[in-house]
Amino acid sequence: METVKNAANYVSESIQGTGAEASKEANKQVAKDDDAKVSTRASAAKDALFDKKDEKTHDTKADVNKEAAKH
Predict the structure, then answer these.
(1) To which H or E segment does residue 41 belong?
(2) How far apart are CA 52 and CA 58, in angstroms?
(3) Number of domains making up the chain
(4) Is 38 exposed, middle or buried (0-12, 13-18, 19+ CB in 10 A)?
(5) Which of 62, 21, 59, 25 is nearest to 44 (CA)?
(6) For the segment 19-67, what is each residue's pLDDT rounded down to a tens digit?
(7) pTM of this prediction?
(8) Which domain holds residue 22?
(9) Residue 70 banded pLDDT, cuts 50, 70, 90
């Protein structure tokens, strides 16, 4: 039963990591947009950093759950 739980957690964390990655990329594009206001660009850059942290966190958790599901 624990293996099923770990597998489900792996899928969930993988999806969340992918979402954070997409958000990070979108924020990076806004931060690079010369037509956007400086405050908007700065906020997007900050958000991209937080998204990158979230992406790494979810990817790490997914890897842990993947390994746990194998045993």
Answers:
(1) helix 38-70
(2) 10
(3) 1
(4) exposed
(5) 25
(6) 999 999 999 999 999 999 999 999 999 999 999 999 999 999 999 999 9
(7) 0.87
(8) 2-70
(9) confident
